[in-house]
Amino acid sequence: MDKNVVKRKHLPTLLSMNAKQKAINLFKKNQGLLRTAEAIRLGIHPRTIYQLRDEGLLEQLAKGIYRLIEVPDFSEPDLVLVSKKIPHAVICLISALAYHEITTQIPHFVYVAIPTKARPSRLEYPPLRYFRYSEKVYSSGVETKLISGFPVKIYNIEKTLADCVKFRNKIGMDVVIEALKMYWQRKGTQIDKLYEYAKINRIEKILQPIMETIVSQ
């Protein structure tokens, strides 16, 4: 048999293997998680993604989001997934309280802040609760935390508390009181900073008697 014919017969397999290995390497460089659009921009063909998925090398976490199986599971996967799928989302309220460890509540949703005019994104998983923030309130107190190497936007602890007071009728006053008590009892509280965010949220008059009661106990 002609050697050139043999080479041509093996060429598609070699190309397939090269494409798969390239895709795996690119996933590893991105902490094992990519959106389909990101993967395509990096030069990974959709066909390669589906092939790796069908072979059990990629896991589809949600529509258009894939994780490399060999990479260890990351902490706070729901927060990472939301951040990956909705870049303008900021983790807020009970989800942020849980991250900052000042609540005993277990969030059944990921609480997400978006600008007033932004359109909520559709995400099959995890379940979300959207809260619309005015531009000033939305942009204040945002921090970017690295969770398993992934950047996640989340409100700092004082801004989170001020937001919880603002949305007390949505999340429950008992949740707010518990969080403020836990905050007061921990080291490194910054009450002045808390009142700065309370002023931005226009809830200083609501916060003050609550804090006075907590401090006097």
List the keywords.
217 residues, alpha+beta, Arc Repressor Mutant, subunit A, 2 domains, three-stranded antiparallel sheet, 8 strands, elongated, disordered N terminus
Topology as a string of helices (H) and strands (E): HEHHEEHEHEEHEEHHHHH
SS content category: alpha+beta
Number of strands: 8
Could you report the average pLDDT, rounded to the nearest whole number?
A: 86
Strand order of the largest sheet: 1-3-2
Low-pLDDT regions: 1-11
Compute the separation of the termini in Å: 91 Å
Task: Give helix % range.
Answer: 40-55%
The description of the largest β-sheet is: 3 strands, antiparallel
Radius of gyration: 23 Å
The helix count comes to: 11
Strand content: 15-25%
Number of domains: 2
Domain AbiEi antitoxin N-terminal: 22-68
Protein name: AbiEi antitoxin N-terminal domain-containing protein
Organism: Candidatus Criblamydia sequanensis CRIB-18
InterPro entries: AbiEi_N
Characterize the structure shown.
The chain is an alpha+beta fold and 217 residues long. The chain has two domains: 3-68, Arc Repressor Mutant, subunit A (Orthogonal Bundle), CATH 1.10.10; 77-216, no CATH class. The chain has helices at 3-29, 36-41, 46-54, 77-85, 93-100, 135-139, 157-166, 168-171, 173-185, 191-200, 204-216, and strands at 33-35, 58-62, 65-68, 90-91, 110-115, 128-133, 142-147, 150-155. The strands form three sheets. Strands 1-3-2 form a three-stranded antiparallel beta sheet, sandwiched between helices. A hairpin with a 2-residue loop joins strand 7 and strand 8. The chain is elongated and about 70 Å long. It starts with a helix and ends with a helix.
